[in-house]
Amino acid sequence: MGTQKRNIFITSIICLGMAFTSMAQAAQEVVNIYSYRQPYLINPILEKFTAETDIKTNVTYAKDGLLERLQREGKYSPADIVLTTDISRVMTFKDKKLVQEVDSETLIANIPSQYRDPDNEWFALTIRVRNIFTSKDRITIDSITYEDLADPKLKGKICTRSGKHPYNIALVASMIAPHGIPYTKKWLMGIKENLARKPQGNDRAQLQAIQAGLCDYSLGNSYYYGNMLKDPKQKGTAESVTIQFPNQSGGDKNSGRGAHVNISGVLMAKHAPNPENAEKLMVFLSQPEAQKMYAEVNMEYPVNPAVAPSKMVGSWGDFKADKLPLTEVAKYRAEAIKLIDEVKFDL
Amino acid sequence: MYKCSANQIGIWILSLILISPIIVPIAQIFIPEGQIFEHLWQTVLPTYTLNTLIMIIGVCLLSAFFAIPSAWFMARCDIPGKKHLQWLLLLPLAMPSYVVAYIYTDLFDYAGPIQTALRNIFGWSSPNDYWFFDIRSLYGGILILSLALYPYLYLLARASFLEQSQNMVDVSRIHGCTPWSSFRRISLPLARPAIVVGLSLIAMETVADFATMNYFAINTLTTAVYDVWLGYGSLNAAAKIAAMVLLIIFVLLGIERISRRRQQQIQRSMGLDNLQKHKLKGWEKIGALSLCWFLVIFGFGLPFFILLEYAWNYWGNSWNQQFLLSTWHSLMIASIAALLTLLVAVIFGFVNRVYPGRLSRIPARISTMGYAMPGTILAVGVLIPLTVIDHCFNNVSEYFWNDHVGLILSGTIFAVIFAYVVRFSSISIGTIESSLSKLPENYDGASRTLGCPPLKMFITVHLPLIRKGCLVATLLVFIEAMKELPAVLLLRPFNFETLATTVFQYVSDEMLQYAALPAIILVLAGLIPLLIINRSLERSHS
Questions:
Q1: In Å, how far is B354's CA from the nearest CA of chain A?
Q2: Residues B444 and B363 reside in one and the same domain
């Protein structure tokens, strides 16, 4: 069994090496971040934070599974902060009791109550609108509602990404809240009937499809559009569509209830080894300076009302956001995904 | 029967360690998960299952169509440009399939350059005006995955054709076989074990794939695993579906083994005799050349060229100082994983050879399951045993020293490497097994008669003879580990970037353009081991 001994030997060397590197890092003040957001989006902001506070930021980015990792690591987890998108995922962290309360007057002052947890366990940092995009050449309308998308007149004219993407699930949940399940199911079937192609690609790809003439309407988050306008090679595509803020006006309360919004948020891990540094980072992220960077780097709407959106985002005009509490969106999530499967939206 | 040796107990323990990340999720099948599974079964699951079966069968058939003829042309025929073609045909292996999928969707999509150009030329204005191959479909997925995966089969089949004894082919020709029927009746059956190993790797890779399927909007059982886990928030229901996937694979492999049970292979080989090359003429030559060049161009040339174009256009966004460090990380973890996986495979190979029988065979079989497990699920699975052990360490150290040591297994690159060994041991076990199976049993008899103890015999007799197989196994795992994504993404320590994770943060947002440069380095790093594999195969047969 000499080979197995060698095996053990190699592994112990690796462990030792890693133990040393982690010890070397312990000398400086740090804050450890589990991030569902891509590093290229948050790094500029984190660098600023380090420059101002001399606290080093350590990041692990993953698309899925960080929640399970935090859960399995338990009280020995090195994570201080979780950065994530989508209200449902934010709520799952809270529901699984993986996060802790943060009592900070600055955070409460910076973030409107609609966009933070009543128990102060999560805080939104940015707001993103689920817009409808229409072809500039072929569609001339003043207003549109999400409900309109199921209108048989739009047959063969709609493109969207998978119904099971968190952004679409949240939109469906926000339809269940005012309309109930039977209406929402009929609405989903209506949209499915109107699709120009099987749901595919991301929000960006739908705008390309509109430009190419495959469809006239698509669903997409506001910042995709903003980022395409910024990229010289994608600008043409973005300029071929009009950004619409749905459900802005109308006679009944539904057509004027406001556009569906979702959030990106920040939470403090329950067993955070550096809670003070973590709080400093959370506060920093809600302050005008970082909020402005969020707005400029990724074209999102700042959650802090004192900070104006970027110039480009501001040029799209003011809009009314759906007042439905975000916790309601999270509550109907399970029903929403069930409906999406029932109508076989993606098949 | 026979008594159980310490070595056999050893490999049972080893295989239990290797499948511990899989057992735990699968064991959750028995925990009730509410109505989710039933709901899915009534709605989308039948379609998903069908799609999965079509994908497996489609990819296996198309890969076989790509790989077996080209392997035979390279091994047993004379064909112009063969010297270069034989390694060019391996290159698609260096391309991560998620990158190839991205590039082809971009190219052939309705809004992509090809369809746009066609519309401009012919004045079409809507999709109703013309028919075009829909790349985002089951067929598109089968084509792209086959192009990305066929080299496994090509590599193994070519090695096997090269090792086949010329005498057998000669005998068949004397008995009046045409080259074609001698291929069909002699070469192909002799290469069957190698072909099966190749196809089973391809099948497992196909079911475990999520990134490509996701791009192509193909809903398979693996998509369902992710949907259920992340959408419905039920890891249990997800595990149930993952178990179904494993079951499909095992049934397919089982059928093959049963059909081969009564065959035993005896051939003297090792490339001792001079291989006579069949000369291809006329249509045969054109057909063979078209197939080989089609594979090289569409499996590697075109996607690589497009990557270069992306890199050129987005140079300013692509360049980043972290590259060297990411490259070093990729090379380091891939090499460690490759060596450890080889070690595991050699241990299994040794025990299987010296103590043949079911008790030795089963552990090796079950250890290969990790390959068919969807990557992120496997990564979550890896966390379970490792965190349990970590918590034990910490409890002990707190008890004795009143201080905790931290997550020394699950929080370090140990977790990443462990996940790689679990995932890729299938590749090395298969390769080593197929090399060992070609060594005649009488070598063992002779050495044992001379009083050589088993371990010494294995090290001094078998290992040198299968060193080529060892090299191939190590390098294949190395290439795969370089490309691997879900495990390293979730399990890595803070600030630990590899080439694959750098590429992914952009690909996940469908912006490969911005990550073209690291993607190119990733491909180039995979090319070097491929060229080494090729040279080693050539040297022994030149």
A1: 14
A2: yes
